[in-house]
Amino acid sequence: MWDRNQMAARAAQELEDGMYVNLGIGIPTLVANYVGDKDITLQSENGMLGMGPFPFEGDEDPDLINAGKQTITEMDRTAYFDSATSFAMIRGGKIAAAILGAMEVSETGDLANWMIPGKLIKGMGGAMDLVAGVGRVIVVMDHANKHGESKVLKACTLPLTGKGVVDRIITNLGVLDVVEGGLRIVECAEGVTEEELRAATQATLV
């Protein structure tokens, strides 16, 4: 199966020249390291357009951080602005895609990625605006939780971030698309069979 970096590299394959893309917290932040020579502009909702890859150890600038408070690098075309302008880009449909992490995704494309009831949370962040405002939502996450239970479900059990918003799911076991009637297998991860992927998925596979 894929590790975190392989999942991020697979997600980077979804991006095309000229796209403006938002990366969520967690595994999605690693996508910046795998953009390569593509002409992609990465946006962070804390007010940065043109994020570069993570810095090498010793080259960190504490003033350059993404929405997840991680140090990042800038590019020759990087622009900075307030969060109101950043969210105007998102709400105004200027961002082509968002690559987000998730706690649960349903077979109808519902997304739960912001809270677990009873646990301390830092806040909503930009997830609700992103899933409502961007052109395409790609989720990158582990296929199962730490108890071995599927996170790709018939219906989400956690509070929703958005309803029917997810287009593609990339997990450590493979790639799934949200289609009419359930999820369609696009690709299995290296070393994973279709039978194994089906067995690990609670959602309906068509």
From TrEMBL:
The keyword Transferase applies. Its EC number is 2.8.3.5. Pfam families: CoA_trans. InterPro entries: 3-oxoacid_CoA-transf_B, CoA_trans_fam_I, NagB/RpiA_transferase-like. It comes from the Bacteria. Keywords: Transferase. Belongs to the 3-oxoacid CoA-transferase subunit B family. This is 3-oxoacid CoA-transferase subunit B. It comes from Sulfitobacter undariae.
